[in-house]
Structures are given as structure tokens and as C-alpha cells.
């Protein structure tokens, strides 16, 4: 069975590196960069700069997961703005 993980090259800052990602994560990363009006390279550079203890491929997966969890929870909006949710009292 062929692996769904594909190795891709990308510029991170001023150097070229490779990441191994499933197609779904690669597509989601491109969608997020488009929503944020930034290049894919700039988004991956930001993820690389802010990651802790994970390799870059894992950091991208975790970023994508967090982004869509926050989107589903209404913490971020489609235009990537921050939404302030208010608790509604059951009175």
C-alpha cells in the first residue's frame, strides 16, 4: 500500500527545507495561508518560528488542527478575525 505522506520542498525564511505531510494537511495549510492573505512560505515560516519540541511536519499538523478547532469553536472567523464569545445565562 502506498503511503499518503508526500515530501515537499518549501522555503522557510531564507533556506529551503522539506516537510512530509498528508495531502489533507498540505491542502489545509494552503487554505489557511490564503485566508490569512499570506504566502504558504510565510505561514510555514511563522509555524517554524513558534514551534516547540516538534519537527516541522508535526508542528504544521498541530497548527492546522488548532486552527480548525478554533474556527469550529467560533474563536476565529472566516476572515481570521478573533471573535469574542459571550456566555449566555440560562435564566
UniProtKB/TrEMBL annotation:
Domain Ribbon-helix-helix: 6-66
Top-level lineage group: Bacteria
Pfam families registered for this protein in UniProt: RHH_4 (PF13467)
Name of this protein: Aryl-sulfate sulfotransferase
